[in-house]
Amino acid sequence: MPSLTMIEAVRDAMDVMMARDDRVVAFGQDVGRFGGVFRCTDGLQGKYGASRCFDTPISESGIVGIAVGMGAYGLRPVAEIQFADYMYPAYDQIVSEAARLRFRSAGEFSAPIVVRMPCGGGIFGAQTHSQSPEALFTHVAGLKTVIPSNPYDAKGLLIAAIEDDDPVVFLEPKRIYNGPFDGHHDRPIVPWSKHELSETPQGHYTVPIGEAVVRREGSEVSVLAYGTMVHVAEAARRSVGIDAEIIDLRSLVPLDIDTIVRSVTKTGRCLIVHEATRTSGFGAELSALVQERCFYHLETPVVRVTGWDTPYPHAQEWDYFPGPNRVGRALMRLMEA
Amino acid sequence: MMNVLPLGLHIPEPQPCFGRADVSGSHLSDAGRVPRPAVDVEAREIRHLAYDLIRVLDGDGRAVGPWSGACTADQLRSGLRAMLKTRAYDARMTMMQRQRKTSFYMQCTGEEAIACGSLTALQAGDMNFPTYRQQGLLIAQDWPVVDMMCQVLSNEKDRMKGRQLPVFYSAREAGFFSISGNLATQYVQAVGWAMASAMRGEGRVAAAWIGEGATAENDFHAALVFASVYRPPVILNVVNNQWAISTAQSVAGGEGATFAARALGYGIPALRVDGNDYLAVHAAACWAVERARRNFGPTLIEWVTYRAAPHSTSDDPSKYRAQEDQAAWPLGDPIERLKDHLIGRGAWSEPRHVQLKAELDEEIAVAAKEAQSYGTLMEGTKCSPASMFDDVYKQMPTHLREQRQELGF
Ligand SMILES: Cc1ncc(C[n+]2csc(CCOP(=O)(O)OP(=O)(O)O)c2C)c(N)n1
C-alpha cells in the first residue's frame, strides 16, 4: 500500500471519485492551474479538464452558492475554501441554503456537496489563518461535519463525503497535512511515511461518516479528540505514562455516541481536547453528552483542554495551542482527583 | 433547423500582460490622450474614462497632456525617494523572512507608485483602509520603519503585541486602518467611515483599497451600493496587478469589462489609470480627493499595474505564469520611469540616483539592525503570552482572567 501524506490522500480521494463518476467536479480559489495553495488539487485539471477542476473568483459565497446550484442539478461538487477562516462570506450559503434545502423542499431538492477547508493553527498563521470553526457547523441542523486525523481516514472519509447525499463540511487540519504531529513545535515534523496510518489503499474505499475509532486502548481515562489533537493526546499519554484510551471522533455530526459512552463507562474519567476556543465549543456538547449518559460511572468531573477564548495570536501561538504539556497536566489532574 | 451548438462553459485563460513590455499597445491609451474633466462632472459624462487609461509619462519620459499637472521637482524627488525606500524595505524584510526571523512577508514590488503617489493627495485626518500591499502609504509619510519592522518581527516593541501576521500594520495616527486578513471586509468599512465624516461635517476623506481579485467578494459590491446611495467622500481604489495568487485577472471578471467599469452600473465616476506612472497616479488621486473633499462624492479608480514579485513568501509564481512575463514588467518599472523623467527635466542624475539608493539601503539596514535588537519571532524577547488575553474585551471578563491563570500568569 502506498504511503501518502494527508495532502496526497485528499487529492487521491478526489482523483478516484472524478475518474469513477463524471458528476464529481472540484473548484475553488487557485484550485485549477495551480492545484490549490496547499496543492490538494494538483494535477486534477490536467487529468480531467478545466470544466471539471477549475479556478473560481475570490468569492466564497459564490463558490458555495454555485455548489448548491450544481448539487441541485445533480452534480457532486467538491468546493474548496482556501482557509476555514475565509468561510464566513459563504456561511449564509452553507447554513441557510445548503443545510436546509432538503428540509424546506420536503425532499424535492438537496445539496449533495462537500465543502473542504483547511483548519487549525500551529503554522504561524495568526488570527486569520488558524481558526477551528467546527462548532459553527455542528450547531447547524442539516450539515455533516467531518475532520480526519490521518491520511487513511482522510481519503476514506472524503470519498464517503462525496458519495453522501447531504452537504458535508470537510475540515482538514493543516498542521498535519505533511506529517503527524508529536506536539513539540521545536521538533521537526515526523514524516507521514513513518506512520502506520499513512498506508492508504489504492482505488476506492470508504471510512463511514459517523463512526469514531479507538486509537489507543486504555483503562484509566477516556480522551475525546479529533484532528491534530489526536496526535497531541498520544504525545501527552506517552509523556505522563497514564493508561489513557484515545478516541478519534473523526465525525462530529453525526457523532458516534456509542463508542464514547462505552469508553467513558469503562474508564470512569473523561478528558476532551480541542483547539477551538472553549466557550460553546464542541467540547461543551461532548461534556454534556457524557454527563447525560455516563454520570453514574464518572469518578471525576469531565475536563476540557482547549484553545483560550481569545483570537489566535501570531507570536504566542504555542501558548495558545493545546500542546502535550497542557494535555498531560490535565491527565494527571484527572487521575489525582 | 437552427444549428445549435452544444453548451459548454467558458473557462478564462490568462493572457500575457499587454503583449509583453510593449506599453504602447493598441488597447492602452497613449500618454496625454485622455481628457481631464472638472471635478464636479457627472458620472455618465465620463463613462469612457473607465475604459481608457490615464497616462502622463510618454515613452521618452516626458510629461504630456491634461493630467500632467504641475508637480514640482521637489515633489517628484520625494516621490522617487519614497518608492526607492519602499523597495529597499521590501527587499530587506524578504531577506529576513528567508533568514527565518519572521514567518511571512509580502512585497509590493512594481506597485510602489500607487501607494506612494496616492498618499500625496491625502491630508492628516484622512483614513486609508489598506490591504497588505500598501506599505508605501506608511513609508511615503516617513513613518518610522523600525516600528514597521518590529511588527513584522513580532518582537517586544511590536505595537500589535505579536498578534497579527507580519505586514498587517495598524497606525491610526498615520491614517492607516488595522488590516484584516479577510479580503474585502475593509472596503465597505471605508464607506461607513466616510459616511460618518460626512454626517459629522468634518471634511475627512476615506480611501478604500482592494486588489482586483478581491473585487469578486460580496463586500466590494456592498461598498459600491452604499457609496452610490449616500455619496460619501470615499476613494474606491482597485489595484489591478493582474494576479490574485495564481489566478489571472480574467477569473475575477476582468475579461469582459475593466474593473473601473464596475462603478458605472452604480453611477459612480470611474478612472482607469496607469499605476506605474507616478505623475498619473498623483494627478488622478488629487482629482478624486478634491472631488470628495468638495462633496461631489465617491470615485472609483482602477490602477493598472503588475505584481512583479511573488504574491507572498509562500508563493512560487513560476508554477502559474511565464518567466518572460515576469521579466517584462508590463508598463515598466515605476521607479525607472520617474527617474528618467526627472533626469530629462534636468532635475536628477544617474550618480545622484545611485547615491540615494545606497543611502536608503543603508538607512534600512541600520533600522533592521535596531529592530532585531528588540527580538525576532524566533529569538529574543517578545510580548508575554499573558498579553493575548488583553484587548479581547475592553475590560477582561472573569473567564479570561481564569484562563490566563490556567496558562500560568
Ligand atoms: C475572504 C478571503 N478569501 C481568501 C483569502 C486568501 N487570499 C489571500 S490574498 C488572496 C489573493 C488576493 O488577490 P488580489 O485581491 O488581486 O490582491 P493582490 O494580492 O494581488 O494584491 C487570496 C485569495 C483571504 N485572505 N480572504
Protein described:
The complex is a heterodimer of chains A (337) and B (409). With 337 residues, chain A is of the alpha/beta class. Chain A contains 12 helices and 12 strands. In chain A, the strands form 2 sheets. A 7-stranded mixed sheet of chain A has the order 2-1-3-4-6-5-10, sandwiched between helices. In chain A, strands 7-9-8-11-12 form a 5-stranded mixed sheet, sandwiched between helices. The model of chain A has no long low-confidence stretch (mean pLDDT 96). The longest helix of chain B has 26 residues, at 73-98. The radius of gyration of chain B is 22 Å and the shape is globular. Chain B starts with 72 loop residues before the first helix and ends with a helix. Chain B has a 5-stranded parallel sheet with strand order 1-2-3-7-6, with helices on both faces. Chain B is 35% helix and 8% strand. Chains A and B meet through helix 3 of A and helix 11 of B. Thiamine diphosphate sits between chains B (133, 181-183, 211-214, 239, 241, 243-245, 307, 311) and A (29, 58, 60, 82, 86, 89).
Total count of helical runs of at least 4 residues of chain A: 12
Helix content of chain B: 25-40%
Q: What is the distance, rounded to the nearest whole angstrom, between the alpha carbons of the first and last residues of chain B?
A: 81 Å
State the assembly state of the protein chains: heterodimer
Outline the low-pLDDT stretches of chain B.
Answer: 20-26
Cα separation of the termini of chain A = 45 Å
Descriptive terms for the model:
heterodimer, A: 337 residues, seven-stranded mixed β-sheet, 17% strand, B: alpha/beta, 7 strands, binds thiamine diphosphate
Briefly summarize what is shown:
The complex is a heterodimer of chains A (337) and B (409). Chain A is of the alpha/beta class. Chain A is built from twelve helices and twelve strands.
